[in-house]
Amino acid sequence: MTEMYATFAGGCFWCMVEPFDQQPGIKSVVSGYTGGRTENPTYEEVCSESTGHVEAVQITFDPKLMPYEKLLETFWRQIDPTDAGGQFHDRGESYQTAIFYHDKAQKEAAEKSKQKLQESGKFKKPIVTKILPAQTFYPAETNHQDYYRKNPFHYEMYKQGSGRKAFIENNWQDENVFQSREQLSPMQYHVTQEKGTEPPFQNEYWDNEEEGIYTDIVSGKVLFSSRDKFDAGCGWPSFTKPVDPEETKELLDTSHGMRRVEVRSKTADSHLGHVFPDGPKEHGGQRYCMNSAAMRFIPKGKMAEEGYEAYLHLFD
């Protein structure tokens, strides 16, 4: 596998791992420090603003499965690119944003994407994220690695409390989502927008056994793979896990006098279904019970044609 590096500074590195982790072609996402004047800085030294380093993540990826341009898109959607003094509630030089390019092609791609964002008019203020040559990257201490996995509750509280989560939701919603909602069928609208439930055994995918991926009917984002689908006997399509955990969110649902965990898509904020702890134990024990009306199935043979070639590795 051909491997390349991508290095991004987007404020607190705790919040910059999850968006990239587990996406196709990503081998690792490491939190660390770069761009400073000293060697082997510690977290305390960087936070003291005395070393010149910024908190960053370094991503090892396969460009055949995950183009650098896609990483750039993901990066922009995690930050406020107009803030030169830090990110959200985290202030200071160590929290400034930057793209560190590793070769000429990355530099040109970064400059092009920055210009495109500026010209889009999405933000009234100038885009101030710096584009700089990559310098020595120093991995952070072990307790800062994969923070969203090790401390999920505190991570979510921090992301919300810092203001990052609200900023992303308010500024980075896909404009195509709003157009797609107007084209939904009555059942698709009832399920995704009104938190409805379609009839069991009378929906499109409950017994579909063809290889392929299931995408969000509104946003087109990939949600599930046929490789993780199983017959739960409930009459709805069921999966052991999502393809990209970053594209789903789980919320407590107390409707109808029950306590359940609702599953929604992050990009479109569509209701998808619920997750239950009664799935196959050998695959994690989860049963993602989804509504067919919330998804669109794309057969393996048509994935490349429809722009999902990067996910063909799921069927290797």
TrEMBL record:
This entry's Enzyme Commission designation comes to: 1.8.4.11, 1.8.4.12
The reaction(s) catalysed by this protein are: L-methionyl-[protein] + [thioredoxin]-disulfide + H2O = L-methionyl-(S)-S-oxide-[protein] + [thioredoxin]-dithiol; L-methionyl-[protein] + [thioredoxin]-disulfide + H2O = L-methionyl-(R)-S-oxide-[protein] + [thioredoxin]-dithiol; [thioredoxin]-disulfide + L-methionine + H2O = L-methionine (S)-S-oxide + [thioredoxin]-dithiol
For this protein, the record's NCBIfam families field holds: msrA, peptide-methionine (R)-S-oxide reductase MsrB
Q: Per the database record, which ranges form the MsrB domain?
A: 177-300
Its source organism is Tigheibacillus halophilus
Q: Where is the active site?
A: 12, 289
**Which protein is depicted?**
Multifunctional fusion protein
Per UniProt, which keywords does this protein have?
Multifunctional enzyme, Oxidoreductase
Key word Oxidoreductase present: yes
Enzyme class, first EC level, given as a word = oxidoreductase
Q: Which GO terms describe its molecular function?
A: peptide-methionine (S)-S-oxide reductase activity
For this chain, the family text in UniProt reads: Belongs to the MsrB Met sulfoxide reductase family.
**PROSITE patterns attached to this UniProt entry:** MSRB
Q: Which domain of life is it from?
A: Bacteria
* Classification via PANTHER family: PEPTIDE METHIONINE SULFOXIDE REDUCTASE (PTHR43774), PEPTIDE METHIONINE SULFOXIDE REDUCTASE MSRA 2 (PTHR43774:SF1)
Q: What is the lineage of its organism?
A: Bacteria, Bacillati, Bacillota, Bacilli, Bacillales
Q: Main role? A: Has an important function as a repair enzyme for proteins that have been inactivated by oxidation. Catalyzes the reversible oxidation-reduction of methionine sulfoxide in proteins to methionine.
